[in-house]
Write a structure and sequence with these properties.
Elements (H helix, E strand, L loop, with lengths): L9 H6 L2 H16 L2 H28 L10 H39 L2 H14 L1
Helix pairs in contact: 2-4, 2-5, 3-4
Amino acid sequence: MGNTRRIIWPTLLQNYGNDEIEAVLAHELGHHVHSHMIKTIVVEAWCVHRILAAAKFWTRHLRRHMFLQLTDVAICRFLVLVFSALSLLLAPALNAYSRFAERQADVYCWKSVPTLLLHCAMEKLGKQT
């Protein structure tokens, strides 16, 4: 984000060969080429907007029946419940989008470097974390 774009970190340079670094770099460039950062921000902002709109709707609707005032402490508990429930409902869609973005970056990488290099690098990264 911003003016600095750093992909290679010290552990990558210490633990991986040049071919594997090239594969990781190609994968990350795939994210850049497909503008995944901006798209992810937009998708997540839309989800937050939907959650806040639902919370506003239910708070206004239930205020007439359950809450005396908007300053009632019970509203906070209710909002936590609404946020949690809607976050759980939206999680599969966000995960699906994340998988889609990763697949796009992988395809971009596979066009640039041999598949085996990316596979080896990703296995090492998976064991490292």
